[in-house]
């Protein structure tokens, strides 16, 4: 079940960039790989890394694993370069998400990237404890990590709830993930048997972003099974 969820989820600050975060998200929501590819080539810094990350996710959903792997490597390289120049919680969180996806696509990379992911999230939390994207990536990481190794569904749900609360804080630059946080909390609830709670969270995600395709897909799938 979790493998299927990963495949479907992997759906979806330079002032000189030709695309901002909202535009990249819009392209990801409609699985527009051509647009995402253009953004990844025509942007720079964090936006470029984010565009590559969303391109990797979209390619993976589409079954284009080589494109997914190549894009993920580009995102990783861009973020590692950014962090060499300046440490920010958002770059650390996104790189942790990239490492997590690297492991998901190739389990043999768990030894290499598992500890790096944990370290990045610890550092990002210390740097910006109220950054919602840090809490979101921690929630995703917990979702796929067994409780005996410090993860688990309850922890994932709590971290997603924390992220949702933090998304109420003002944001004017890097602001992605609000609808995604509701979606992941819904997934944790679904895995725990709380279908009603999951449906409510997925609907909240669509209320936040009416174009958010992943939550729409999950709702439609649940309707089929009922």
TrEMBL record:
Keywords: Signal, TPR repeat
Gene3D superfamilies: Tetratricopeptide repeat domain (1.25.40.10)
Signal peptide boundaries: 1-19
TPR repeat residue numbers: 179-212
Keyword Phosphoprotein part of the UniProt annotation: no
Annotated protein name in UniProt: Tetratricopeptide repeat protein
């Amino acid at each position: 079940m979790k493998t299927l969820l990963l495949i479907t989820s992997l759906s979806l600050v330079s002032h000189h960039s030709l695309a901002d975060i909202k535009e990249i998200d819009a392209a990801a929501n409609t699985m527009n790989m051509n647009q995402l590819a253009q953004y990844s080539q025509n942007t720079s810094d964090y936006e470029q890394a984010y565009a590559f990350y969303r391109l990797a996710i979209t390619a993976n959903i589409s079954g284009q694993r080589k494109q997914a792997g190549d894009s993920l490597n580009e995102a990783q390289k861009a973020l590692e370069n950014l962090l060499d120049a300046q440490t920010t919680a958002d770059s650390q969180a996104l790189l942790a998400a990239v490492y997590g996806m690297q492991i998901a696509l190739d389990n043999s990379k768990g030894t290499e990237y598992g500890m790096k992911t944990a370290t990045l999230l610890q550092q990002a939390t210390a740097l910006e404890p109220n950054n919602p994207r840090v809490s979101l990536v921690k929630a995703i990481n917990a979702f796929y990590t067994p409780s005996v190794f410090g993860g688990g569904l309850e922890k994932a749900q709590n971290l997603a709830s924390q992220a949702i609360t933090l998304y109420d804080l003002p944001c004017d630059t890097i602001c992605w993930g609000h609808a995604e946080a509701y979606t992941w909390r819904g997934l944790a609830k679904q895995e725990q048997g709380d279908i009603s709670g999951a449906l409510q969270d997925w609907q909240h995600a669509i209320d936040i972003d009416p174009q958010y395709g992943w939550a729409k897909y999950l709702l439609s799938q649940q309707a089929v099974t009922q």
